[in-house]
Each structure stands twice: as structure tokens, then as C-alpha cells.
UniProtKB/TrEMBL annotation:
Keyword Transmembrane helix set for record: yes
The UniProt record lists the keyword Transport: no
Transmembrane regions: 30-47, 53-73, 100-121
Gene Ontology CC terms: endomembrane system
Domain of life: Bacteria
UniProt protein name: Membrane protein
Pfam families: DUF1232
Localization (cell): Endomembrane system
DUF1232 domain ranges (all copies): 32-68
Predominant subcellular localization, coarse grouping: membrane
Amino acid sequence: MPRRIKEWARVIRRDVHALWLAARDPRTPWYAKVFALAIAAYALSPIDLIPDFIPVVGYLDEVILLPLAIMVATRLVPPDLMAEHLAAAARAEGRPMSRAGMVFIVTVWLLAAGALIWWLWPRVAR
């Protein structure tokens, strides 16, 4: 069982990396880019839709929602292009992780939080 879980996590990680590559490829349609980028950012982000400390439901997004979103995103990218990015992600599995990617994800979340605060502030400060 633990080996199956590790394999599942490896496949998810590879697919998210492939989506990240597809989102940055100019040959990917714009709607697929937007969805792939959103899914990759969410998967790589330390912030969850449903916090993990909530019993049972906390892991719902990682176990059910994220794989479904990845499946939809991979179908939005043209099949030959997705195969190319999956192969590139598989080749990159053993290499170290990108600090630039981490900085990008943290920056996106900070900008989103700032925009939300900026939008909510006039409504709450009344």
C-alpha cells in the first residue's frame, strides 16, 4: 500500500510539472494555459482550499479535487503537446526543485491576498 501511494504521488507531481510546462508553452491555447497555471499554482502552493487540520475533509482537495482538476487540465491541452510536456517532466524528476518556481508561487499568493484585502478593506472598514 505505501508503495502505491508513493507512485500515485510521483504521478501527480509529474503531471503538475507537465501542466506548469504546458502553461508556459506558446502553442497551448489560452484557456488551457489559464486553467493549467491555476492548477499548478494550487498544487505547488502551501495554502489549501480546505485546511488539512479539519479531520477527514481536510485532505479532500488533495485526494479527490486536485486529481480531478489535473485530469481536466490535461485534457484541455492538445494531446501531442501534453505528451511532450509529460516526457519533459518525467526526465526532470530526479533534478533539484526550482527556487524561482517557489518564489513565483509565493508571489502569486501574496499578490492575490493583497488584492483581496484591497478589495475588502472599504467594505469592512465602514
